[in-house]
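Researcher: Predict the fold of Ferric uptake regulation protein.
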Amino acid sequence: MVIKLDNTQTQQIEEICAARGVRLTTQRKRVFELICASKKSFSAYELLEELKKSEPQAKPPTVYRALDFLMEQGFIHRVESTNSFISCGSCNGHEHFSHLLICDKCNNVIELQSDTLVSLLTNNAEQHGFQIQTHVIESHGICQACSSHPM
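Model: Structure tokens for Ferric uptake regulation protein follow.
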């Protein structure tokens, strides 16, 4: 895997962590950079294998703690259906609900944010006296690149 880093995203989360008074350790930062390096989602063990290239002593708990921190801070999302992780498109740390489009051929994940969709879901739930605490909206299919270039 070729890792290309986006220093803008890394700098952004460094600033957010400093403002919040939370510690962005070297390992947390590296896991974030690995996740941001691709449009594909990564499992914890795929991340561990990549992390071991720069930190051979890394163990599964290292990655899981980093993932927990990054999710708590709103910097990444968990793709529930594949038990994997992607970077958050609006990595500014404000809480939001996302709709993930997951390509079953290339594993790329596109994050969409739609206030209209969230409003519709909230209204539907309220009609039944239900208060939504969290959303997990994932759609599987074939992305435009894969559908126009069959493998």
